[in-house]
Each structure stands twice: as structure tokens, then as C-alpha cells.
């Protein structure tokens, strides 16, 4: 079959494989630090759609004009999600990431009011409870990255009635993690911690970096966007 578009360069494939590979988290954060300068170019080559899809999903769920809403972008990287949120009228953005190199790039965008370093899963978010109208985690919920146990920490900093927008990949090597994540999400729903607004499977999430990961030979992997609303959900306004 003819390949659509350009083939991914070996460099892109190696850099993506490295951060998704095994090894200690400290090593992976060092790789992210080193990747920061080329990250946006590389994900453009990957046709990485998660920031756009997640921001669109959140904007769809969001009831009010978003300018005053406080948003937390967890594992914010270089600020790709912030760019998408900004285009949709969100202006009050805070970010956290485990990589100092990524935070430096995010700071240079001028889109965040505050940025902090935090290795989620190893330490709590350095933020007060029930503080944000929405919390985003785009791309970091995956094997060897942010553990599924961190979801309760995301809930803690979200206001009652606030939204959480999470994404994960559905490629073969992440299916174990995805199943574990979905069990955590369902358990929190059973406990009445939040209710599901949306779970959308997306076929062309980003280009696969190997044939093994590709969905039925398409050259792409699939992914999913989840949106939840923290309980208690406020009643609809009268009028």
C-alpha cells in the first residue's frame, strides 16, 4: 500500500520511542528536557491531534463564557494545549510539568499565568483543593508516564461541578494501561465522585512510529478523549 504523506524521519521515531520506552521516570524526564526544542516540530510531523481534540471537547462541555474560568493544564509540555484553549477563549491558564526544559518553552509562549514543576504520581499537585473550573491531562496518561492513581489528585484540585478532560492512546502497547485507567474512571463514577460527560474514540490520533503499533496497517494509532464533571454537579440555572 502506498504510504500517505511523508515517512516519519528516523529521528522523530527514535525520540518518540525513547520517551514512551521503559526505564526510570527520572531518565524519561531527562529525555523530555532534551526534546523540548524539537518537540513541536516532531509532533507536527506525527499529526498529533490530541491538543486540538481535547480543547474542542472541553469547550463543547463548558457551560459559561470561558474567559474567567480557571484551568489547570497538567503535563503541559511546551504549551500546545494552551494554544488550543486560548483560541477557544480560555485565558486563565496554569500549567504543571515534570520537565524543566518543557516548562521553559511553555513559559516563552506567554499563555500561562503560572507554571510549576511537579512529577505527578511521585508528588501531589502543589495546588489547593477545589481551585479549578477545569483540569486537562492531554497525552501524559500512558504506560510509564503518569500512573492511573494520580487521577484522584486531579479530582482534588477541581471545583465541584468542574470538568476534567483526560486523554490516552489505544495503541497495542498502551492497552493494558488504558484498561487500568478505564477501571479507575468507572470506579470513581460508581462512587459518585464524578459523572461522565463524554468518551470519544478517535481513529487517527497520531501517526504510528512502528508497524506493530499501527491500527490495521493505516500508519496511525487511535486514542480517546474523556470528559467528566465532578460531583456534586450544580442544578441548571432557572430562566
From TrEMBL:
The lineage of its organism: Eukaryota, Metazoa, Chordata, Craniata, Vertebrata. GO terms for molecular function: S-adenosylmethionine-dependent methyltransferase activity. Pfam families: Methyltransf_11. SUPFAM superfamilies: S-adenosyl-L-methionine-dependent methyltransferases. Residues 72-165 form the Methyltransferase type domain. This is MET27 protein. The gene is Mettl27.
